[in-house]
Amino acid sequence: MQPVTTVLYPGDTVVLYTDGVTDVRPPHDIDAAVLGRMVQHACERGDTADEVAEHLRERIEAVLPLALRNDDIAVLVLRITR
Question: What is the DSSP letter of 54?
Answer without folding.
Answer: H
